[in-house]
């Protein structure tokens, strides 16, 4: 078997890392190609998980349009597929990298394995462009590694053949188990040095992230205004690693750049983010990955989106959909701060940390006789 794993963003790298480690453990031959859809944040994660890609396309450019990025991925990935002639391409989730890599493989009649298959909002603009990306990948993939029963049911409703679907749990839980061991070695003092925030002097803090395209403009402004109001009425700090995209960064620093109790910092490494999640009161975010990671730390999350493809977290009581409505964010944040049951232990709906084992076993079962 000849296998290539393709990814390009930090969340993809985090979720593919356990599969890479399991492939190494099982001594299965494979190669890794990163597109560089994220650059600095991706490299930090590759270093943390000790991943050394055979190919790095380094495609990220400032203010790059999706069509430009997609066409570059399609062209450069096609060249790799032509030279390497893999039996199987493995992609993750719903990024532009995953969608256009899958299209390139499909055009060459190469089998595609889709990790984290079947997530849906059925609203084609939320999240944008991810919802359409993952639906397209599902039409092209042969193997669908679904993180939950609900995700499998979505695929069955779309007439995906059941024999091609495997419920695995989410590999983010596998990655977190590795990451948790690493952050045990970190102290408040070390984290303070890495972030520039005197964490030991903070009483309590809320962790904030935000980067979705559909929130650019008014959505980000509403989030900032909600934070300004919350620090007026609550004894709380905010720690906000601000995404590098200027559509986010310019607005956030203009609104919050010199506000006491709101600590704006550059994007942080994966272990630092885990440390912040572990030690915060709760999280406000539009991130899909953080919706899956928060339950591992038993943290509630206010999801600044109107729709979520991760409704298991909502049903389990971890996630609360607030959209980008200023008043709703303020109301729910204040309620959580006063809720004495916030730390009550809830069951993680995203798996048992053995997803990578199941995925690699399935790959081996399907291609093991042809290993090289």
UniProtKB/TrEMBL annotation:
Record CDD domains: GTB_UDP-GlcNAc_2-Epimerase
UniProt keyword annotation of Isomerase present: yes
UniProt cross-references to InterPro entries, sorted A to Z: UDP_GlcNAc_Epimerase_2_dom (IPR003331), WecB-like (IPR029767)
Alphabetical list of Pfam families matching this protein: Epimerase_2
The enzyme's E.C. designation: 5.1.3.14
GO molecular function, one term: UDP-N-acetylglucosamine 2-epimerase activity
Domain UDP-N-acetylglucosamine 2-epimerase as annotated: residue spans: 24-363
UniProt keyword annotations, A-Z: Isomerase
Region forming the signal peptide: none
NCBIfam families: wecB
The family this protein is said to belong to: Belongs to the UDP-N-acetylglucosamine 2-epimerase family.
Protein name stated in the entry: UDP-N-acetylglucosamine 2-epimerase (non-hydrolyzing)
Organism: Christiangramia oceanisediminis
């Amino acid at each position: 078997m000849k296998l290539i794993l393709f990814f390009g963003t930090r969340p993809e790298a985090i979720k593919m890392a356990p599969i890479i480690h399991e492939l190494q453990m099982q001594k299965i031959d494979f190669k890794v190609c990163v597109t560089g859809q994220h650059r600095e944040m991706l490299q930090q994660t590759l270093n943390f998980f000790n991943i050394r890609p055979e190919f790095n396309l380094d495609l990220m450019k400032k203010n790059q349009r999706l069509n430009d990025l997609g066409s570059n991925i399609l062209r450069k990935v096609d060249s790799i597929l032509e030279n390497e002639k893999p039996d199987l391409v493995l992609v993750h989730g719903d990024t532009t990298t995953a969608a256009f890599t899958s299209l390139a493989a499909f055009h060459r009649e190469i089998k595609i394995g889709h990790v984290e298959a079947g997530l849906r909002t059925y609203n084609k603009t939320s999240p944008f462009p991810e919802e359409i990306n993952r639906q397209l990948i599902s039409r092209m993939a042969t193997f669908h590694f679904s993180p939950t029963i609900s995700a499998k049911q979505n695929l069955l409703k779309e007439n995906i053949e059941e024999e091609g679907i495997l419920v695995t749990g989410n590999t983010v839980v596998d990655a977190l188990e590795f990451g948790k061991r690493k952050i045990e070695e970190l102290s408040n003092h070390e984290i303070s040095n890495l972030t520039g925030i005197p964490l030991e002097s903070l009483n309590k803090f809320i962790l904030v992230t935000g980067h979705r395209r559909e929130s650019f403009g008014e959505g980000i402004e509403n989030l900032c205004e909600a934070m300004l109001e919350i620090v007026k009425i609550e004894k709380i700090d905010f720690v906000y690693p601000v995404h590098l995209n200027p559509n986010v960064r310019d607005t956030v620093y203009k609104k919050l750049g010199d506000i006491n109790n709101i600590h704006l910092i550059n994007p942080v490494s994966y272990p630092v983010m885990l440390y912040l999640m572990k030690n915060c009161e709760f999280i406000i975010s539009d991130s899909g990955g953080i919706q899956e990671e928060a339950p591992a730390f038993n943290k509630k999350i206010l999801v600044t989106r109107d729709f979520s493809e991760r409704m298991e977290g909502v049903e389990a009581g971890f996630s609360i959909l607030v959209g980008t409505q200023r008043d709703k964010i303020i109301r729910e944040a204040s309620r959580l701060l006063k809720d004495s049951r916030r730390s009550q232990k809830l069951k993680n709906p995203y798996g048992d940390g053995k997803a990578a084992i199941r995925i690699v076993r399935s790959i081996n079962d399907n291609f093991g006789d042809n290993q090289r």
